[in-house]
Amino acid sequence: MEIPKKPVPIVNDWARPFWDAAKEQRLVIQKCKDCEKHIFYPRIACPHCSSDNVEWVDASGKGTVYSYTVVESNSPSAFLKDIPYVVAVVRLEEGVQMLSNVVGCEPGEVRCDMPVEVTFEKLDDEFTLPKFKPATR
Amino acid sequence: MPKVAVIGVGQSAFVRAYPGSIRELAFEAYREAMHDAGIKAEQIDASVVCSAPEYDKQRTPAGLMAEYLGLNPQPTFYVESVCSSSSSGLRTAYALIASGLHDVVMVLGFQKMSEISSAESQERMGRGADIQWEAPFGTMMPAYYALHARGHFEKYGTTEEDLALIRLKSSTYGLINEKAVFRKELSLEKILEPKFIATPLKVFDCCANADGSSCLILASEEKAKDLCRKPVWIKGLGMATAPINMAGRDSFSGLKCAQLAAKRAYDMAGITPQDVDVAEVHDCFTIAEMMAYEDLGFAEPGQGPQLIRSKETYKEGKIPVNVDGGLLSKGHPIGATGGSQIRTIVLQLRGDAGPMQVPEAKIGLVHNIGGVGIYGNVSVFGTE
Question: What are the residue boundaries of the ChsH2 rubredoxin-like zinc ribbon domain, all occurrences included (chain A) (predicted)?
Answer without folding.
Answer: 19-55
